[in-house]
Amino acid sequence: MADEIDKTIEENAKGPRRAKGDSVEMEQHELTDQIAADRYLSSKKAARSKGMGIRMSKLVPSGSA
After folding, report:
1. Which residue range(s) make up the domain with 5?
2. In whole angstroms, what is the distance from residue 45 CA to residue 52 CA?
3. Looking at the domain assignment, is residue 19 inside a domain?
4. Residues forming beta bridges with residue 14, ordered by sequence position
5. Taking a C-beta distance cutoff of 8 angstroms, is the pair 29, 36 a contact?
6. 28-33: long-range contacts at Cβ-Cβ below 8 A with a sequence spacing of 24 or more?
7. How many domains does the chain contain in total?
8. Single pTM value for the model
9. 38 CB contacts (<8 Å, ≥6 apart)?
């Protein structure tokens, strides 16, 4: 269900904000709205990823004591 919502949000952000008939008038979503939708979808994708953006590594000193 969450994937369907994400797809719907993405499709709506790609489509026009408003469209009229006969005279063919279209209006695009504002850039701030597009950026907000992109950030939202990116954060949802990052939250689902393994490790949640944290990388663990072991540091080994090069010299011997």
Report:
1. 1-13+28-48
2. 10
3. no
4. none
5. no
6. none
7. 1
8. 0.49
9. 13
Predicted local distance difference test score (pLDDT) of residue 64: 62
Residue 34 lies in a domain: yes
**How far is 7 from 44, CA to CA, in rounded Å?**
12
Instruction: Find, among 65, 15, 5, the residue nearest to 40 by Cα.
Output: 5
pLDDT digits (tens, 9 = 90+) for 9-65: 777 777 777 778 887 887 877 778 878 888 888 888 877 777 656 677 888 888 765
Angle at 56 between CA 53 and CA 59, to 5 degrees: 145
Place of tokens 């949640």: 52
Cα four-point dihedral sign 19, 25, 29, 30: negative
